[in-house]
Each structure stands twice: as structure tokens, then as C-alpha cells.
Amino acid sequence: MGIRDAAYPGSFDPITFGHVNVVKRASERFDNLYVVVVNNPNKKYLFSLQERMEMVKKDLDGIKNVVVDSYDGLLVDYLKKNKIYNLIRGLRAVSDYEYELQMANANHMLFPELEIFFLMADTEFSYISSSMIKEIASYNGSVSKWVSKFVEAKLQEKLLKK
């Protein structure tokens, strides 16, 4: 781990093609990219941490310098512990910006050496959200344009079981 490494945290509930797009592009710019599946006790997840880790690992398999990890705690503690000084945050729309700016300022106050990079999702993924995908899948709608076949099957298994 070093100065040319970065972390891309998220709940990935589930991982989408928008997430994969950001990971691929960020992984080209850093020596190692740590994709950190976070577990926030204040959030209600559809998938368990283990299920989210499985989906992320499967969807990112083949990207050489990507390490999938998980963390249950304050993100800056993970970054400090692992000596990661670069943080990637994906943005889809202006609506994401205010929240992300607040989080960036707080993280920078807690870890002044941290550099935070905002990476816009490619246009074709700019409107995708995990919440939208879960809602469509819950009505048995096709989400194949936004998630891998593996993730789509996991959504159907979780949401449509009787």
C-alpha cells in the first residue's frame, strides 16, 4: 500500500455497471484500487455484507490491480490503517454533489493528508442507482442493462422468492 493507491468505498447494494465503470477508470490511474464494501449499521441493506462482497468480487474479477475488501467502521480509520491517501467518490448528478462535498470536507478534517477525487460516471450510467435497480427488480422488471447477469439473478432470488 502506498501513496499511489486509492480506495473506492460504497455499500454496493448491489453493484451496478455504473460502479464498475468508475472502478475500471480509477484502476487505470492508480497502482492499486481498494474497493471497500462498507457496512453502515444505520443503513438497511437488501444484501448481507457477505453477499455484497461476493457480487463485487464477481463483477470486478479480471481487473488486475483491484483489491476487494470490507470495513465496518469509520472510513478514514481504514484509510489510515492501510496507508491509503487517495479516495475516489463517484458522482452521477448534481444531486450527489452536496452530500459528497460535506463528506469530503469531514473526511479531510479527520485525515488532512487525504486527497479526494470525484469521478463522474460515464453519461450512459449517470442515472443508475442501486435503489432504482432494486425497485425495478422487485416488480420483476428487467435490470440487465444496469447490472451483470450474476447480480440480476441474486436480485431475483432475493426479491422474488415466495
UniProtKB/TrEMBL annotation:
Pathway: Cofactor biosynthesis; coenzyme A biosynthesis; CoA from (R)-pantothenate: step 4/5. Pfam families: CTP_transf_like. Keywords: ATP-binding, Coenzyme A biosynthesis, Cytoplasm, Magnesium, Nucleotide-binding, Nucleotidyltransferase, Transferase. It catalyses: (R)-4'-phosphopantetheine + ATP + H(+) = 3'-dephospho-CoA + diphosphate. It is an enzyme of class 2 (transferase). Its cofactor is Mg(2+). Substrate binds at residues 11, 43, 75, 89. InterPro entries: Cyt_trans-like (IPR004821), PPAT (IPR001980), Rossmann-like_a/b/a_fold (IPR014729). GO terms for molecular function: ATP binding; pantetheine-phosphate adenylyltransferase activity. Its EC number is 2.7.7.3. One of its GO terms (cellular component) is cytoplasm. ATP binds at residues 11-12, 19, 90-92, 100, 125-131. Reversibly transfers an adenylyl group from ATP to 4'-phosphopantetheine, yielding dephospho-CoA (dPCoA) and pyrophosphate. Belongs to the bacterial CoaD family. This is Phosphopantetheine adenylyltransferase. It comes from Petrotoga sibirica. The gene is coaD.
